[in-house]
Amino acid sequence: xxxxxxxxxxxxVWIAAVMVAGIGGPSSPAAAQPIKIGLMAPLTGPAAAxxxxxxxxxxxxxxxxxxxxxxxxxxxxxxxxxxxxxxxQAVTVAQKMIEGDKVVAGVSGSYSxxxxxxxxxxxxxxxxxxxxxxxxxAITEGGKYVFRVTVLGHVQxxxxxxAAGNLLKVKTVSMLIQDxxxxxxxxxxxxxxxxxxxxxxxxxxxxxxxxxxxxxxxTKIKQLNPDLIYNTAYPIDGxxxxxxxxxxxxxxxxxxxxxxxxxKGFLDVAGKAAEGIIITTNLDxxxxxxxxxxxxxxxxxxxxxxxxxxxxSTYDALLMVIDAIxxxxxDADKIVDAFxxxxxxxxxxxxxxxxxxxxxxxxxxxxxxxxxxxxxxxGVVSDLKLLTx
Length: 389
What we know:
By secondary structure, this protein is α/β, with parallel strands linked by helices. It contains 14 helices and 16 strands.
């Protein structure tokens, strides 16, 4: 015991110290700790442009929320990892987020095959995982903790087939199918819907991601003379397809998917060859929604170039997590219950009509057309029969 201070005085001093430190109180350091949310994206490798868009969009959102006081007085700490466009790395990243960083939720700003791998980890650990733009159906099949804010690849493909048959009124089509989860799911939905509307598929050729030479297959397609060429490429490959088609004098109407919804990766590379192509996506650049206008304007101002679907979708995936935490706190089961209850929720990429029990979103598919190297509104597919998985 300290000289001159009795037990009673020591107790008073200890209580005062505890109160100053705030231990256990409503304004305690524990309560003021940041809310950790993980983000995985392909920041290196062939999809780095998409990964950067996702990362920048999420960082901008976190800055906005934290500047406004955070979530119920707690700041957000965004934990960002590069999945390196590799499924094994995606598993490692998911484990680091959950076991090392103790995130309350994860967000995918990545592709289908990496997101599928990470989703299994989040599901097993019972941590909410919000998916921005990965399309493969297997991503949400593991259980209740995985949701996605973009429509399934098969559903988006159906929307493309609907646009081909009902809006463009084409009678014949040639398909260039990227040989992976993304490309095949889109192609199957497109073919199902297009053929159901009487569109004849003249050819369906597969290609590997990263392929450089499309002239032989495009020469064959030119001889077939279809009304439409539909491809499920990612940005760089899609740009090469269009440039090589232009070099061969092919003037056939082209259609792609959200895989081509990229400013840096597609528009800047394809240049004039992209003029007139129509894509299915979930970002309408001419939307009147305030949240969309604000996102488009602020991203352009902050980063110096127009945003794309990958950034906008990942922004929405994170925003959905933030809105859920604002309502119910950081408990994992309460967060996913809040997701499931979202109806009429307005994001940058449109309004969520509902989620299916499997965590699949039901929302419109936007049609954009390239005019003067800018994506513009062409139409929208809103038929619930097509949009419901």
